[in-house]
Amino acid sequence: MSEGKILKSLTPGEREMELINTYSRRALAPEEVYCFSLVLCDNELDRDFEQFATDQLEAIAALFVGKTGVFDHDPSAKNQCARIFRCAVSTDPTIKTTLGEDYSCVVAEAYIPKTEGNLELIEQIDSGIKKEVSLSCAVRQKLCSICGYELDSCECVHKKGQIYGGSLCYGVLSGIYDAYEWSFVAVPAQRGAGVIKSKNKEGEILDSVYKRLQGAGEVTLTHNDKAELVSYIERLKSLSRDGEEYRRSLIDELVRLNVLSKSSLPPKVLRSVSERMTISELKAFSAAYKQPPQPQLSSSSTTEGSRGCDEYSI
Ligand SMILES: [Zn+2]
Q1: In this model, does residue 71 exceed pLDDT 80?
Q2: Residue 155 Cα to ligand 1 middle (Å)
Q3: Distance from the CA of 89 to the center of ligand 1, in angstroms?
Q4: 222 CA → ligand 1 middle, Å
């Protein structure tokens, strides 16, 4: 995903109407459409320390022609109101990117049919309320700017946003092979969010790894992910050993109490049954054995017995 912005509204000419009408069911008149231009993306470094390789911008321009825009990446039909009818790469050699390259961007031209339902959006674009756009596309590779290998792969030991020997490490997005959608973003995301994201709090990495593992398809783990996962498994193994030891002691205690109580239940049977008990069941059984002999049975049987004997003797 990348951010761009709406540039300005346009008055469609003959050529524009020709292109627009290749997408509409009936021929639209210039007054029936609202046209505007927007920057879909550029070769500037984004806040996630990623950059579209400059030679990929042409591919992006080609892929986004004909694509409809949605609100906040909600691709329901009622949201699909704007369509890109032309897209081209524009380069300005007088502007340099952070990385020192000539600034290049993908400029798209889009139209919205002037229907009642679209008037509010048109107004928002016109007034500049809606000016941020973002796009999502399929990227085959995210290469490390330092070593050239795939970032987060076994070969690359670098981390985006870090400096190595005076050079910034960033991801070069290349092999763009599909365009999913572009979207009007209601609330522009905060600048600098990528910097915060690179400092993972404890547990965040694990949560993210766990979520990815639960999802469908293959999962690629970074060095950080792997280290976090291994240390988590080590912690679990240690806890499991402690738990097993505690469980064993509960079973031993239960069997000991059973023997002491002179129960007719063979210890071997009890041990086998207790293997399948939970910790709380084991505790409950032990507690039951520990209870003093039931007074009402023994004492009442004595009185009953003596009275009975008396009665009997009479
Ligand atoms: Zn690297």
Answers
A1: no
A2: 7
A3: 29
A4: 12
Separation of CA 171 and ligand 1 centre (Å): 9
CA of 166 from ligand 1 middle (Å) equals 14
Instruction: Tell me, in angstroms, the distance from the centre of ligand 1 to residue 173's CA.
Output: 14
Same domain, 122 and 15: yes
Give pLDDT tens digits for 114-158.
Answer: 988 888 888 878 777 667 787 878 888 899 999 999 998 999 999
Q: Are residues 213 and 71 in the same domain?
A: no
CB 6, CB 38: distance < 8 Å:
yes
Residue 297 lies in a domain: no
Phi, psi of 281 (to 5 degrees): -70, -40
Whether 80 and 173 share a structural domain: yes
Q: Using one digit for the tens of pLDDT, what is the confidence trace for 170-180?
A: 999 988 888 87
> Ligand 1 center to residue 192 CA distance, Å?
22
In angstroms, what is the span from residue 99 Cα to ligand 1's centroid? 17
Closest C-alpha to 150, from 160, 137, 164: 160
Say yes or no: 40 and 168 in one domain. yes
Structure tokens belonging to residue 135 = 């796009």
Nearest CA-CA partner of 124 in 191, 71, 78: 71
Mean pLDDT within 191-219: 55
Q: Give the Cα separation of 50 and 52 in Å (integer).
A: 7
Count of structural domains, the chain: 2
Residue 226's pLDDT band (cuts 50, 70, 90):
confident
Residues 189, 218, single domain; the answer is: no
> 184, 199, 214: which is the final residue of a domain?
199
